Amino acid sequence: MPSRAAWILPLAGAGLIFALALGASPAIADGPPADVQDAAPVAPGPGQGPAIPAAAPCPLDLLPEMQPLPEEATLDRAAVPPVDVVGAFRAAWEPARSPLLSSLDTPRFVDLSRWARGETTSFVPPARWPETLDLEPLGRDPATGRWLFGLPPERSPVALPAHSPLVFRRVVAFAWFDPGSRRLDRVILTIRGWREE
Q: Is the N or the C terminus of the chain less surrounded, counting Cβ atoms within 10 Å?
């Protein structure tokens, strides 16, 4: 069986995080639906682009391919969330994932790509692909008490074209969950991969 090595490549333009202004409706160009038009906007953080309606599930950040999450360095990966926290996360994630992610199209994935950009232009997101992203607990942020849920690239069912037969690229998502409020704080979508030798 071929050995699997982590695909770590130099990153250019670190810090490029793109925030999407996604409301409860994927028809962004027409503005938010009538039931959220009067919602107070949530102020964006530095460099995060336009505000999102308060009624949206949570902010969505797009992270360039293979760029690490800043919080991963301090994550307590040995922590195991209580069963009720996992259940509360799933209750929040499952109805939120399609409204957050289903409008992402081929050009958006090309924008996220740092390698195989040409090959990614042929990628067509599978039907109902957000529903296949079943996230699992990855660890706890000791500073805030939030839990990070995610999907290792090897377990993601959403495959992207690659520039080499030895390279495998996958769409992955992460979600920060606040156990106190029982709400998603932030969802991050990115591309990660590995090389087999």
A: N
pTM: 0.72
Within a 13 Å sphere around the CA of 91, how many CA atoms are in the beta-carbon half?
11
CA distance 136 to 154: 13
The pLDDT value recorded for residue 56 is 54
Consecutive H or E run containing 90? helix 83-101
- What gap in Å lies between CA 29 and CA 3, rounded to an integer? 46
Residues 6+ apart with CB under 8 A from 140: 75, 76, 79, 81, 146, 147, 148
Q: How many domains does the chain have?
A: 1
C-beta atoms surrounding 12 within 10 Å: 9
Q: What is the pLDDT of residues 40-99, one digit of tens each?
A: 333 333 333 333 333 457 999 999 999 999 888 899 999 999 999 999 999 999 999 999
CA distance 117 to 98: 25
What is the extent of the structural domain holding 95?
60-196
3-state secondary structure of 171: strand
In a domain, 167, yes or no: yes
What pLDDT score does 23 carry? 35
